[in-house]
Amino acid sequence: MTVNSTSVLGANSATTTPSTKKSSGTTETPQEIQDRFMSLLVAQLKNQDPLQPMDNAAVTSQMAQLNTVTGINNLNTTMQNMASSFAASQTVNATSLLGRTIMVNGNDLTLSGGKPADGALDVQQATDAVSVAVLNGAGKTVRTMDMGALAQGTHQFSWDGKDDSGNTLPDGQYTFAVSASAAGQKAAVNTLDITSVVGLQNDPTTGSKLLTAAGTQVAVSDIKQIF
Fold this sequence. Notes:
FlgD/Vpr_Ig-like, Basal-body rod modification protein FlgD, Immunoglobulin-like, about 35% strand, alpha+beta, five-stranded antiparallel β-sheet, seven-stranded antiparallel β-sheet, FlgD, bacterial flagellum biogenesis
């Protein structure tokens, strides 16, 4: 009987793929793979043609394939454990930000308890004029603030919660938009939220997310500054 080097593990085996699936859809353990391999090898040796016995090279080749599959499965398990440990560590570290004030990309302003709402601008180049417009939930401009000329860099501002007529507006969520010019041309400005961390959400797919007072979710890597 002629035997090729892949006959023991079979045409549907895991000799060329990192993980082996059972019929139920679950992944076989390295020990289960080894047991199945040895059972097939013993059965093949018992039923081989005495006149054409399986040579040592074929057995060695199949043993090497088994070791490769087992090694890959062990590596996958190790990497999964490392990923789980990293995610858990990230969550623990993120809890230290609860109650802290952070700066992230965004354009939200939160009025609460009569306190001023803070925001920031990341000016990409020196500007001649910068104007901040505060908008209510309906998208209507309720206050316009002239910030004058600004140098390149990050600049904070504070809104006292009043409209252009000096009336105090109710607590809630507002947004802001920025217009800037330099040498008569429109200048690029990124808007930034200054908000507090009020909660933490652990997502197994995307990792830990910080919940902010502005009602947004941000990753730790999105934080520009911590106060």
